[in-house]
Specification:
The structure is a single chain. The chain starts with a strand and ends with a helix. Helix 7 runs parallel beside helix 9. The protein has about 350 residues and is α/β, with parallel strands linked by helices. The protein has a 7-stranded parallel β-sheet, sandwiched between helices. The chain has a 3-stranded mixed β-sheet with strand order 7-9-11. About 45% of the residues lie in helices and about 15% in strands. The protein binds nicotinamide-adenine-dinucleotide (NAD). The site of nicotinamide-adenine-dinucleotide (NAD) has 31 residues, from helix 1, helix 4, strand 5 and strand 7. This is dTDP-glucose 4,6-dehydratase. Its cofactor is NAD(+).
């Protein structure tokens, strides 16, 4: 049994689906179901007895403690977070509440549970904290990519809150001996990505005939990784990572935002052509995000060398699959856009 937090979100739901597709070990999926949690992501495993969904808040130490006592997981995989940089600029409080206080509450429940385990189970236990490359700050055009020893320099309330959670996790290893693992990953893309983030926003706006907003000059560089490659990296770190260690995860796919948007428009022009013109005609430049980091790049050599992980997708194969997924899942997109996905809790949760 593993205990996943935030498993109704973008990466968490991909992780739970991949996990259950690959082995029979059950998953407790603990998620608050904020606007970012979408039970439609889990529709194919909603009735699967290996998937135990529980709505709750990671900051609710007593609730988490009761679930750990009931299910006795051998590992925690911690995805739950507020994750959108723009939202953190307009309303940072929720980011401190969930990412910092929530992670602290979760760690406290896990520490108490772990401390009471027999020695052999303590040694085998893992707390895997899923984090971001944004904690390292921004790079100049000629700077070397972030390594695991790059100094933290978070620039947004989102990245600062994730940096704080990384430090808490680190401290629980050094102070209490909790067997923690931390992954710092670059930007993910793929199925079930909420359309407030760049790639799904561009695909859904393009098809709706809406403007395709580009912040500033569009030359901000991000390192992109297909979500199932991130999930594979997490499984590998869980399996073979050394407690107390940090692993950077990235796809060696640095792209300027404008280039990503051009690629998306060009794929859509082929797969779903407009009556006239190109999707590129919808590109609109908007005022840049305050404090917008210029470049992120991940040096993933440690996880490649020590754990033998490598991404299976290139940017070209992954981005094509992603566009095709959105074209094939218009119902999922419509439910998100109309807000219908939020009705799931009212309709289903009480009956389970
Ligand atoms: P997401 O916003 O899509 O999903 C977050 C999930 O956490 C949602 O299901 C939400 O309901 C849940 N949640 C929020 N607050 C909660 C709380 N207090 N208690 C329980 N559940 C709560 O996020 P994502 O993009 O899937 O990211 C998952 C994790 O991976 C985050 O920790 C994020 O920092 C990290 N990460 C994301 C990326 C990326 O590109 N998306 C890259 C690297 C790391």
């Amino acid at each position: 049994m593993i205990f996943v937090t935030g498993g109704a979100g973008f990466i968490g739901s991909n992780f739970v689906l991949d996990w259950l597709a690959q082995n029979d070990e059950p998953v407790v999926n603990f998620d608050k179901l904020t606007y970012a949690g979408n039970m439609n992501n889990l529709a194919t495993i909603n009735q699967d007895p290996r998937h135990i969904f529980v709505q709750g808040d990671i900051g609710d130490t007593e609730h988490v403690a009761a679930l750990l006592a009931e299910h006795k997981p051998r590992a925690i995989v911690h995805f739950a977070a507020e994750s959108h940089v723009d939202r953190s600029i307009h309303g940072p409080a929720a980011f401190i509440e969930t990412n910092v206080n929530g992670t602290f509450g979760l760690l406290e429940a896990v520490r108490a549970h772990w401390t009471a385990l027999p020695a052999a189970e303590q040694a085998a236990f893992r707390f895997l904290h899923v984090s971001t490359d944004e904690v390292y700050g921004t790079l100049g055009a000629n700077d070397a990519p972030f390594t695991e020893t790059t100094q933290y320099a978070p620039n947004s309330p989102y990245s600062a809150s994730k940096a704080a959670s990384d430090h808490l996790v680190r401290s629980y290893h050094h102070t209490y001996g909790l067997p923690t693992l931390t992954t710092n990953c670059s930007n993910n893309y793929g199925p079930y990505h909420f359309p407030e983030k760049l790639i799904p926003l561009i695909i859904t706006n393009a098809r709706a005939g809406k403007p395709l907003p580009i912040y500033g000059d569009g030359q901000q560089v991000r390192d992109w990784l297909y979500v199932s490659d991130h999930c594979a990296a997490i499984r590998r770190v869980l399996e073979a990572g050394q407690p107390g260690e940090v692993y950077n995860v990235g796809g060696w796919n640095e792209k300027a935002n404008l280039d990503v948007v051009h690629v998306l428009c060009d794929i859509l022009d082929k797969l779903d052509p407009k009556a006239a013109g190109s999707y590129r005609d919808q590109i609109t430049y908007v005022t840049d995000r305050p404090g917008h980091d210029r470049r992120y790049a991940i040096d993933a050599r440690k996880i490649e060398r020590e754990l033998g992980w490598k991404p299976a997708e290139t940017f070209e194969t992954g981005i094509r699959k992603t566009v095709q997924w959105y074209l094939d899942h218009q119902d999922w997109v419509s439910d998100v856009q109309s807000g219908d996905y939020l009705k799931w809790v009212a309709k289903n949760y009480q009956e389970r």
